[in-house]
Fold these 2 entries.
Entry 1:
Amino acid sequence: MTKGLYVETYGCQMNVRDSRQIVALLKEEGYSEVSDPKLADVIVINTCTVREKAAQKVMSRLGRLLGLKKRKEDLIIVLAGCLAQQRGESILKRMAHLDLVIGTHQIRHLPTLIRKVRYTGAPLIELSFSTGLYCYPEAPLPEDKEPCAFVTIMQGCNNFCTYCVVPYVRGPEESRPAEEILAEIRCLVEKGVREVTLLGQNVNSYGQTLTDGITFPQLLERICEIEGLERIRFTTSHPKDLSEELMACFARLPKLCPHIHLPFQSGSNKILRLMNRGYTREEYIEKIVHLRNICPHIAITADVMVGFPGETEEDFCATLDLMEKIRFDNLFSFKYSRREGTYAANMVDDVPAEVKAERLTILQKKQEAHTWEKHQALVGEKVEVLVEGRSKNSLMDATGRTPTNKIVNFPASEDQYGKLVTVKITQAFLHSLRGEIIE
Ligand code: SAH
Ligand code: SF4
């Protein structure tokens, strides 16, 4: 009989990709995925700790799942991901029913560790960092038939933005060898994948830890040569490392989708300095202007934060002003959250919670107006969409994204899944577009 595996994922795309790898690895051990934790023999919670809210959400969910152990004694509950890396030891001490805690570099060892726990019956914790092992080339690829896939091209981060816990929980930056990445993408394409999103905390600095001298633009060029692959995306870029050479790729490489996610975090030079971001607002704007010159229809999205220590009304207005100047296609916006162990944790978290909330609301309202304006402008336009599968909203509809990463829902038959189609946009909403296939 197969054993049930239930995986729950929190946080970023890197975690989504890691969870897929967990599923693939445990499938080889005879597990099959179940959608109800009550049916599982192993439960994996893949966690995030980038903000306190994410960590709290995981903790309360974990508490509830641990209750399942009362009904099923041989159930194994695994805590994985960034929160596990950061607070695994103290969580294990507090939560008696937790069986296994693994850090961000231990995924490939998960099957062995689960077997060990089963054998000894004792809880286990493995948080060590490793080099070169993270990308497990020998691990099986995800099996789902989706036409889009995430491909991790590097791990960790050396930037140490003062607010950010990522360098501590994901370890130092390390790039994955190009040949390994290319082999994985070729294999994905053989399985029907048409679009890949290359993942890393700062993909712009790809290659710096490798000895073969390959740069990120050169990697993109080689990926473009893979026959059968239609689209390439990447995330995340850091403004300080966004080179001329990389920007030129948007004009030069036809498979590279015209969209860049370029977090700016704040529009105030004072705050950017305190954040250790390594660029000024003027430099950021200059890069966007350059990108738009090279590729006029490029979509620009970003991350931004409000309420960083020392952020005055004037600093916040500088953020709003930057938004007005750039007019982003979309923004991911957050309230600053103090993270233990970071440099900024030593600064006084002096912006009151209600001011953070108020600033976030103002910022999000402004962005909604900009997003709405961009979506409205697409009504009547013909856009190329990769049909990704069934829409969540309606059984009759399929869903896909434009090259600029906007979600489109439209009627389509199942034999069109995985294909590129031309869609005429008929209606705009705040979070998606509606259209009909015309070719
Ligand atoms: N490596 C990526 C993003 C990592 S975290 C980059 O450099 O862009 C994703 C986003 O979470 C960040 O861009 C930032 O906007 C937000 N974030 C990170 N730490 C945070 C904190 N302590 N409080 C609030 N938001 C945070
Ligand atoms: Fe965090 Fe900065 Fe690294 Fe992004 S670049 S992961 S925000 S330290």
Note: The chain has a mean pLDDT of 93.
Entry 2:
Amino acid sequence: MLAPTPILPPRLLIQLGAAPASKEAAIRAAAQLLVASGCIDAPYEASMLRREGVANTYLGHGVVIPHGMVDDRHHVRASGLAVLQVPGGIEWHDGQVAHLVVAIAAQSDTHITILRRLTRLIQDEVRLAALRITTRKEEIAAALTEDAPAPGAAGPAGDLRQRFDWTVDYPTGLHARPAAHWVETARNCPARIQVRHGAEVADAKNLIALLQLGLRCGDGVTISAEGDDEAGALARICAAVTGLSAGEKAAAKAAADAAARAAGPVAGWNPADTPRVLAGLGASPGLTIGPIHVLSQTEVTVRDEPEPLTSGGDRLHAALAATEGQLRALADDTERRLGKTDAGIFRAQGELIPDTDLITLACQLMVEGHGVAFAWNQAVERMAGRLSALGNPVLAARAADLRDVGRRVLAQIDPSLKSGHDLPDVPCILIAPDLAPSDTAGLDPTRVIGLATAQGGPTSHTAILARTLGIPALVAGGPALLALENHTPAILDGGTGRLYLDPSAADLASARDWSARQRAKAEEEARARALPARTRDGHAVAIGANVNNPEQVPFALDQGAEGVGLMRTEFLFLERGDTPTEDDQYATYRAMLDALAGRPLIVRALDIGGDKQVAHLHLPREENPFLGVRGARLLLRRPDLMEPQLRALYRAARDGIPADAATGKGAPLSIMFPMITSVPEVLALRAHCDRIRAELDAPELPLGIMIEVPAAAIQADALARHCDFFSIGTNDLTQYALAIDRQNTELAPEADSLHPAVLRLIHLTCEGAARHKRWVGVCGGIAGDPFGACLLAGLGVDELSMTPRDVASVEARLRASEMGALRALAARACAQEDAAAVRALAVLLDGEPA
Ligand code: PEP
Ligand code: MG
């Protein structure tokens, strides 16, 4: 089928193959075309030449935009364009060579539409190169008119050819994340797509235009499409628009639930009075008291230092590209760590970069003679100001996003304009939208005594780092946090995720008292941590630490760990930009064994896939990576990854373990395989291990599997026949049992590993293992929760492996318990209806809340 020939819009004149003798001749020729089309009066030609005398109209990449002086606008009869294609080029200004002379006659602000198109075009060098020599006017016309109303077209049009009506049912309206998804969908369709709300129309491919509609829940819109495959485009946009509804409703419900949770009493410290409270998710335990400090960027002064448009344009172009790359990397990283939802924030920010209105505004300011940094900053401020002025909180938040992106671009244009963070001199509870892991890692715990972020999840690096630093923290506290006044006195409970504001003197005193008691308890636990975790009736539970590198081993041992129960080896791959060799891995495993000096080490074979994507492995993209080629499935398909790792492990066992310890049960090194679902997988992995061991003449090592999939828990008895031990990955077992993406912040409160369904699967696993006299460990997060640890011991778990910092309190709780009571507690927990009811049983345990 032939592609339809675009119809040239009225008042767009194009002259191909021009060869003007000079810049002045080019301007005159273009002006004559505009005169001939009735767009301008003859005197405007002189005005265009005058303008060239005061400002260089070279836009960049061979495109110039001669136009008249503002005072001469009355000579413009109608908006229009005249394009002179100059294949041989014409010297314009200071060595700049023009190939497309786009003379503009613009009434009111139609030049913005034209500039928008041109500024987009100058970023597409391949297309520009083609336009310089094309012999088809239509090609030039299309480049200047597609997706935008033709020059001179009347303002907001009606609907496009095909349409559907929809009522916004996103409880918080059309905010940046869903809007970015609409834009992404629309941009993948060749047809024009627009969204109309009353008389307001927005191009569905333009994020800011969409957001400016200010759509709230209940607003009716008409979405229409026209052009190539318009029916397909409409179907796709309809699916995108309506497909987001369920997620948006769930997100709003989670926020409402969080607010509801804020109302009731919690385990731990509770105020006697009724201070205002904001609730998020507990990310790093501890109670802290101090003044609020909302993190703000330090102001930077952007001086106006004019520079030639070409170099300015190039610098802006490079800064935009670099920022786009930076945001893409940030989104990819966030998606890997926290999931799609949080990554959406950065993807939405990335959508703001190519916004044509914004670039146009910046280019206009540059064309007017302003410096690039100044022009960009002004453009951002004007656009953000417009968004804030609409009085819509959703748009106000977008203004903040825009300023944030603006700052990133500014720092790319001129690194000296990078804004830093301010911090008060007194210790404070720091409030931030979110913190980059590098920012969190740099926090000084003597100055930042608590941390609360509006976004993020408890599994974020920020949360992990806060725990490492021992800073009480809450995450996902919502935007209300950011509106708090600096210096407001507050109590932050990082265990329950609550922030109490303006507490009474009595509450402050009781919180201080509670903290002091907790500290005393922790000190007592620390004193006892060298002792084994034996219950009062003499039942020992082995305690391991989850540690990934040899440097962390001394700290883990110091905390009371008896060995390493989980070494996640994918971090050897994730933390570097390339694949470690067999020798690299061998050195690391040897160093781990040396650091542990004969204590047990369980190394988990690579668990790549799911949220742990290793960019440099270039693995195929999957729709559902958590349900795809992950863990053992990947190992069995990629001998190039599995073989060097197994060889390195067996070599380390052969060379690093004293001969007498290297035989049979009790050997310090064990290998464990992740994401096992079936017996044939175990048999295949075991066969590989046997072969490699024989090749290397290495000792036999215990081979275990992770129980992370319900199928494995249910079939534990069959699997136990073929392996030496189990370690239950409760993080994944919870995810797969409850069908809740472990990275989903909204659903995080429901993804509770103490859900009775998960407990029953753990119980089944222990029963299956016991039938073949295998031991069972747990290395998921719940092992580090003192109450969870007690339940696990009661369910029949023999070993618990956790973050080193959790060891002392878990051991203390186990030591204070009776095994018989824990078994009864576990049986009761399995019979509960939901996770909340299980958690409520904590009070039964020695009368102490968890
Ligand atoms: C788990 O799933 O509980 C586990 C320990 O493995 P990871 O968190 O590394 O997936
Ligand atoms: Mg796992």
Note: Confidence is low (pLDDT under 50) at residues 1-9, 148-157, 661-666.
